[in-house]
C-alpha cells in the first residue's frame, strides 16, 4: 500500500550504476553540465532534487526512455567543489517518486513527479513477513561479516517497516537491476516479499562460498602437511646417508640383482640387506607421521 502525498516539479540528475533509496545518506560526484545545472537550480529553491538511475552507464546524454520511471526525491545537504572540476554532494534520500512528465528546458532536465510515502496495515501476515526478513538479514550479517552487529541492531529495532526494508537493502551488495526492482516496489508488503526472496538467495550463495572456502582451505592444509612430512622424511634419509627414497632404492637394487649374474650365496646376502633397508624405511615413514 502506498499514498501519493504530492505532485511537483524537480530538477533531475541521472545516476550511472547507482541507486539511491529513501533514508540513504551518501556522497555523489556530479560532473555532467546538465546535472550541475540541475543541482544549482535545486540549491536556489529548497535543495530538493530528483535522482533516477539510467539503464546504461555508457549513455552520456540519456533521454527519458533511457531512464527508469521510479527514482528518489533527495535533499542536498552539502556541496563541495573538487579539484577535477566536478562537484561532490552529500544527499539524503527522502521519498520514492514516479516520473509523470519529462521536460527538457534550456540548461537541465526538469520532471513532474508523483511523490509517494509508505503505508501499511498491521496484520499477522505482515508481522510474520517482517520477522522472516529480519531473521534472514541476521543470518546474512553473521555469514558475510560485512557490517557490525551494532548496525544490525540499529536497523532491526526500527518501527517504520518501509524504512527498515530500505536500510536492509542499502547494506546488500546487489546488482543495479535488483535494487531498481526493490525501489519500484511502492507497496511495502510486496517490497518485503521481494527482499525476503533476495536475502534467501544471498544466504544460499554465502553458504556455498563458505563450503568452497572450507574445502579449499582443507586441501591447502593437507598439501602443506604432506609437503612438510615429505621434507621431514627426506631430512631423515639424508641423516642416514640416503639421498633418495628407500623404497625406490630397494626396488632398483632388486631389479639389478635379478638382472645380474651373481653367485647364489651373494644374492642371498644382498636380498637380506635389502629387506633390512626396506623395513628401516618403513619405520622411518611410520614415525615421521607423528610430527
Largest sheet: 5 strands, mixed, barrel
| H/E element order | EEHEEEEHHHHHHH
Order of strands across the main sheet? 1-3-4-5-6
What structural class results from the helix and strand content?
Answer: alpha+beta
Task: Report the principal-axis shape.
Answer: elongated
Q: How many strand elements?
A: 6
Residue-averaged pLDDT, rounded?
A: 84
Specify the number of helices.
Answer: 8
End-to-end separation: 67 Å
Uncertain segments: 287-291
Measured by DSSP, the beta-strand proportion falls in 15-25%
Chain oligomer state: single chain
Task: Please characterize this protein's 3D structure.
The protein is built from eight helices and six strands, in the order ββαββββααααααα. Strand 5 (87-104) and strand 6 (109-118) form a beta hairpin. The longest helix has 52 residues, at 188-239. The chain is 52% helix and 23% strand. By secondary structure, the protein is of the alpha+beta class. Strands 1-3-4-5-6 form a five-stranded mixed β-barrel. Helix 4 runs parallel beside helix 6 and helix 7 (246-259) packs antiparallel against helix 8 (264-288).
Task: Describe the structure concisely.
The protein contains 8 helices and 6 strands. It is of the alpha+beta class.
Question: What attributes does this structure have?
Answer:
single chain; 291 residues; alpha+beta; 5-stranded mixed barrel; 8 helices; 52% helix; disordered C terminus
Give the arrangement of secondary structure elements.
Blueprint: E1 2-15, E2 25-30, H1 33-44, E3 48-53, E4 70-81, E5 87-104, E6 109-118, H2 124-144, H3 149-156, H4 161-171, H5 176-183, H6 188-239, H7 246-259, H8 264-288
Parallel strand pairs: 1-3
Antiparallel strand pairs: 1-6, 2-5, 3-4, 4-5, 5-6
Amino acid at each position: 500500500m502506498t499514498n501519493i502525498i504530492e505532485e511537483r516539479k524537480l530538477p533531475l540528475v541521472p545516476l550511472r550504476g547507482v541507486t539511491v533509496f529513501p533514508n540513504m545518506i551518501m556522497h555523489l560526484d556530479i560532473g555532467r553540465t546538465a546535472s550541475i545545472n540541475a543541482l544549482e537550480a535545486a540549491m536556489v529553491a529548497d535543495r530538493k532534487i530528483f535522482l533516477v538511475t539510467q539503464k546504461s552507464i555508457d549513455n552520456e546524454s540519456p533521454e527519458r526512455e533511457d531512464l527508469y520511471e521510479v527514482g528518489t526525491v533527495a535533499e542536498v545537504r552539502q556541496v563541495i567543489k573538487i579539484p577535477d572540476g566536478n562537484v561532490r554532494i552529500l544527499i539524503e534520500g527522502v521519498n520514492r517518486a514516479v516520473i509523470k512528465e519529462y521536460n527538457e528546458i534550456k540548461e537541465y532536465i526538469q520532471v513532474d513527479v508523483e511523490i509517494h510515502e509508505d503505508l501499511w496495515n498491521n496484520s499477522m501476515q505482515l508481522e510474520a513477513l517482517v520477522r522472516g526478513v529480519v531473521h534472514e538479514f541476521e543470518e546474512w550479517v553473521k555469514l558475510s561479516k560485512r557490517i557490525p552487529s551494532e548496525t544490525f541492531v540499529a536497523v532491526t529495532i526500527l518501527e517504520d517497516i518501509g524504512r527498515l526494508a530500505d536500510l536492509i537493502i542499502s547494506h546488500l551488495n546487489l546488482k543495479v537491476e535488483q535494487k531498481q526492482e526493490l525501489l519500484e516496489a511502492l507497496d511495502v508488503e510486496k517490497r518485503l516479499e521481494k527482499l525476503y526472496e533476495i536475502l534467501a538467495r544471498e544466504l544460499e550463495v554465502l553458504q556455498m562460498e563458505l563450503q568452497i572456502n572450507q574445502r579449499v582451505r582443507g586441501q591447502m592444509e593437507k598439501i602443506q602437511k604432506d609437503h612438510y612430512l615429505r621434507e621431514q622424511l627426506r631430512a631423515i634419509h639424508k641423516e642416514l646417508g640416503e639421498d633418495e627414497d628407500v623404497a625406490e632404492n630397494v626396488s632398483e637394487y632388486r631389479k639389478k640383482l635379478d638382472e645380474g649374474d651373481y653367485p647364489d650365496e651373494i644374492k642371498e646376502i644382498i636380498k637380506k640387506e635389502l629387506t633390512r633397508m626396506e623395513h628401516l624405511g618403513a619405520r622411518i615413514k611410520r614415525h615421521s607421521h607423528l610430527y
